[in-house]
HMG box domain-containing protein (marine metagenome), 222 residues
Amino acid sequence: MKLFKKEIIIAIKLYIKEFSEQNFPDIDKEEFFDLYLSKYSKNKKKKTAYMMFVKEMHKEYDEKEKFDKIKFTEKAKLIGNKWCNLPDIEKEKYEFIADNNNMTEHDVNNDNICTWINEKNNKKCLKDIYDNEYNFCKKHFKIFLKKKTFLERNKEKQNQIKFDNYKNSEVQEILHNNSTIYSDIYNRIYTLDEQNNASCIGEIDENDIILFDIKNKFHNEK
């Protein structure tokens, strides 16, 4: 495959040279090669752990064949059986090698590549972008929307729980900075507007008043 690619690049250079000699319009060589290489890389198959294992085993058997000839079918069968019996921890090593190969062959800085990163194993997605706003592929864009919707609903639910707990709890008045604030049995702090609507603005930690909006602590002399 490398030889085939090399021959194509040589042919492209010859065509560009002929165009320039025949006074054709100027050709941006860098853009021309980038376009070709990007199309070439997209058509290349993604490496897998098994492919990396087979490659290594072929090297091993090639060394053995110097002394004892092995048929191709027998070699394939031996490699397949060896892979099936390989411990998971050994397979993970080849998965790591395959991932590194895929990252090398694929232009990870390409603007058209999904920006999703798996937080558990720090693996990057190499698929093309589906949504240009968040720069995710189709699969990870759907996951992102589901997670976003869940967090928004959960936030609304938590706010409603806090408000219901406030309404159903005993409230204590506290004078703080010449203003009256209120605390409930959960040590949360509230203020009331002119219509007596409550807003949770902080909490009490031991004898400290912590206000969420300014993130400062004030000592409460109760």
About this structure: The chain has six helices and six strands. The chain has a mean pLDDT of 71. The two ends are 80 Å apart (CA to CA).
